[in-house]
Amino acid sequence: MVRVAIAGASGYTGFELLRILCRHPRATVTTITSRANAGEALADVYPSLRGHCDLIFQDTTPEILTADADLVFTALPHQAAMEIIPELLNRGVKVVDLSADFRFRDPAVYQAWYQEHTAPDLLAESVYGLPELYRDTIARARLVGNPGCYPTSILLAAAPLLVHRLVDPQSLIADSKSGVSGAGRGLSLTTHFCEVNDGFRAYKVAEHRHTPEIEQELSVLAGRQVRISFTPHLVPMSRGILSTLYAQLRAGVTAEQVRDAYHDLYGKERFVRLCPQGQFPSTLQVRGTNYCDLAWKVDPRTGRVVVVSVIDNLTRGASGQAVCNMNIMMGFDEDCGLEDAPWLP
Amino acid sequence: MVRVAIAGASGYTGFELLRILCRHPRATVTTITSRANAGEALADVYPSLRGHCDLIFQDTTPEILTADADLVFTALPHQAAMEIIPELLNRGVKVVDLSADFRFRDPAVYQAWYQEHTAPDLLAESVYGLPELYRDTIARARLVGNPGCYPTSILLAAAPLLVHRLVDPQSLIADSKSGVSGAGRGLSLTTHFCEVNDGFRAYKVAEHRHTPEIEQELSVLAGRQVRISFTPHLVPMSRGILSTLYAQLRAGVTAEQVRDAYHDLYGKERFVRLCPQGQFPSTLQVRGTNYCDLAWKVDPRTGRVVVVSVIDNLTRGASGQAVCNMNIMMGFDEDCGLEDAPWLP
Amino acid sequence: MVRVAIAGASGYTGFELLRILCRHPRATVTTITSRANAGEALADVYPSLRGHCDLIFQDTTPEILTADADLVFTALPHQAAMEIIPELLNRGVKVVDLSADFRFRDPAVYQAWYQEHTAPDLLAESVYGLPELYRDTIARARLVGNPGCYPTSILLAAAPLLVHRLVDPQSLIADSKSGVSGAGRGLSLTTHFCEVNDGFRAYKVAEHRHTPEIEQELSVLAGRQVRISFTPHLVPMSRGILSTLYAQLRAGVTAEQVRDAYHDLYGKERFVRLCPQGQFPSTLQVRGTNYCDLAWKVDPRTGRVVVVSVIDNLTRGASGQAVCNMNIMMGFDEDCGLEDAPWLP
Amino acid sequence: MVRVAIAGASGYTGFELLRILCRHPRATVTTITSRANAGEALADVYPSLRGHCDLIFQDTTPEILTADADLVFTALPHQAAMEIIPELLNRGVKVVDLSADFRFRDPAVYQAWYQEHTAPDLLAESVYGLPELYRDTIARARLVGNPGCYPTSILLAAAPLLVHRLVDPQSLIADSKSGVSGAGRGLSLTTHFCEVNDGFRAYKVAEHRHTPEIEQELSVLAGRQVRISFTPHLVPMSRGILSTLYAQLRAGVTAEQVRDAYHDLYGKERFVRLCPQGQFPSTLQVRGTNYCDLAWKVDPRTGRVVVVSVIDNLTRGASGQAVCNMNIMMGFDEDCGLEDAPWLP
Lengths: 345, 345, 345, 345
Fold this sequence. Notes:
Chains A, B, C, D: It is found in: Cytoplasm. Four copies of one chain form a homotetramer. By secondary structure, chain A is an alpha/beta fold.
């Protein structure tokens, strides 16, 4: 059994970690921390877990987080994460960080979109935690930067096209739609039920902070610098991301080549499911799971390929993927604790 | 491992059985049937289960259902259930029936609210599958009539008050609110998204067929004939039932006696959770689980007690309870396969 | 044209007043105030009104509110309302107050459920603004206490039964369900989309502040002191209240007498619609309007009558009724500016 | 007063016509027809209109529709529309057709995406009813083909860019999201509440029938043949369309030129509202109205412009626009009967 601590366990991603880990056969949650809820019992903050987990929220300090843990999940805001993680590592634990702080290869990029990076040395060491692309290095990592929710949905959709050089990398456009839990449990008018319900809107058009993260990984896949148009939207639902990806096919590329590219990259993957030809996925079919379901269509009229991916933003887009990374880091089966089927409806 | 078959597996309760059973450590689903989908692969009807279960829907016949099963769940419409169940029992399997056909003690009551009963002899044998009340007889049963969703939520709320003779049984009023999945997966204007979304309504006021089922069990608990006012309502949500129960306290009954009654009956129950004083539950906190969460308030101004219960109508109100009944019938732990924590959000 | 000012125009009820009044043929909104948004253009706070109304939010002071107004709507929190209203009246305007501050006849009741009343003399003068009951005194009033949303839905449902002495007044139970806009536009976890969506809950069980307001008016109707059980619930929808009312019929009362009572009281009312026998209303059918739609069922099994009423909490439950009161106070047709049909869906 | 008849008045667009027209100051609805509901009173089918309109649904025949009408709105399925419209015109009424049957200039295009056209001569006469583009010809038209909902949202977003030659017309990509009412009131699993609620999906990817309609009008605007990638998605909400449009800017085009193009084309339009710089619209802000709210962003990183448009699919995308077309055809003010502000929330 690996002993794990969760820093920032009172938010939605922290709670989702708890939900998964309290049933994980090879992990035990020993410590949960929360600045806002320190001293409170978990069941008082989340009555749904009454009877599942008797922990008390503690304060978020390196001492507490490492006192009884082999691995720490940091579900903290960016900046707060990089302030505490160096000390966690010094104390000998492994870390899966769910913030943006350790996802970037180049501190200058982080700085341009977030703020100055206070642990740039660790940036060089940290591994981008997308298992389908970096499984082997994750297995050896001490620090994993868990991918953002939008990037996960877009990178998995785009990877086969870029790896197999089927599209013009500069033509990529990602139109993404997210449920409201992506905005977290904090209070703002933009998450007020009446301002969201029965409406739909775009936000941070062409300026969302996930853009450089997406471009970094697309560039690796394409073998050249890539720029993408990325537009996030807010859907009146709690969970789920659907990304619609558009790309111009290179001259002569056939529908068969596209299909083969997806099957080649994902045919043996546990957590990527390819929809049958002509079916397009709903976010409902992956809720609460670590799946990414993919479908695509080659459109000869326009010479483009359209790819649709769906994930659960809290599971595959955050906590499920984090547990998957833990599994890889610890040598467990990748789907350990992540085998549940989704509810319907 | 118990081998189980599911008759009528393509509806919501059938699917919920599948979702639970495909991860059950002591059961294997060998057979799924559906008149509408016979011949189709499960994953084509429910893409969310792709990779979890490779079964093909077969036709709903006694031969098919018993060919490779020790126990059959019948998730069929009423009438269809009682037409097939006698033959299933003859072939030596146990049956948990999710329809209304085997919930009644008196065929005349069934006939007054449904239609003529074609297997009245089995009515005498069948056991009402509410584990908290009938655990011991369920354990010995060959045929369990799985309770209705509304009755489950109301009976669990009312039982301590009646068992301990704290209220006037004739004063009971149950105002219940259900998510839309309770209406099933069939098509009608009343489940059209646009007719439900952002609205709320009552239906079948004082004439819902769950009324006699509720009254039958309340009468057993009270030791006398009970009549209840029961009003169901439709909530624009997919899952969940909340029932608000009103009852007149007998003279002199104190808040402490009420509290003691709930703790006495449910203090050791695995699937009933009592909310801390002053907290009232949301249906969200039991989604996808077999829990019934209960809270109550004694109102000295009116001399009444108000009880609020929440369940997931598809899990505790149907398929989760059915699996729990199977567990009891097979001698497994009651929570076997039912241990998952709910999602939030 | 009557010139009107709206104090507290940036909340949902303030906005709803604006929406209605900016199309009212006999009223002109001259002044809108908001402490939070003073100095901002209306269209910047509510882009939906761009092109409809060019006003700028001003500060909430008596001078500003009365500078160019014959009548002021106060859509302020309780306490804030009674602090400013005496001075507004001194300056010669009429006032329709949407808070709880001037709904009570007895300052002691107000004090028991809210706080000390700072203008008790005006309590004696103010009129409870439910047009179906107090039309004539509203017409002569200088100050109207606009009813609460829950009380409106419950009083209209109960009035015929009490006026015609058809039920035992002490047997009344009101189980009410409201959309989220009833909680206002302020931020709290209870209105966070993810905490509300796809869930249902009760709150303030047997202790909601609308209870004494309901009881005050029920007692007037019954001609004796009435106590009611009142339970509010939160529905995952933006607008609407449905109240389900239960009452014990007096011995010998027939379904015909009940029907006659409703037709007698409401047969000529513009804004109360009686559903055909056997139909029960959805909140959707009154959205955005001043209607209260009513249905009832006499249940001979239990000797009770069940009444269902639906209103839009922001329109009939607040701002539409306030405009209706203004119409009566100014001698306009009651439905002036309130004639729109609801959307569907 | 113009006398109008509505063919197919029992669907959502028919109802929306009724809702608007029953309050229109210069029109009277004399006749409503519905094959499914012939003989039923309007208020029995739509209780929300009780007290607003006393009409009875009649059968859909040319005789009935023209007996007491100067203008007929045909809210019929495609094919059914073109079967009846020639006879309506022969009888001397004007027609606004809400189906796809008279939107196309080239019968071959219609035939390729729908079926054979049975009144190709009228295609040459009919006018595409987008007022901002074809106001003058609409004014003289006998037959108007009312635009589709998606095309309306996309054409209004794209027109300034094409008219002013600011983008490469072959680079256009339209990613659209619609509420469920766009699928109509008919029954199918895709509009079942539980299959839609809390989920999001794409459909008819690169093959939706609105594609040729969009391309026809884009080609006119661009002065050359245009092909577009168009992906519709289904949002768990009742009303509203948001389209996100992507286009490659021609070399050297500045943000100022883009802004000027929008202000040039729409600065004086009654029903197009341009959002302030940096604000992006929600569908909520145009619900129930004829507005199209637009915002755009020039992204120098990618050399693209991203445009976001929102409309109400039933109002601007169907019935509101149809009434606007009637206003133009009859010489009324364009906003006659269309002046209401949207609700919020």
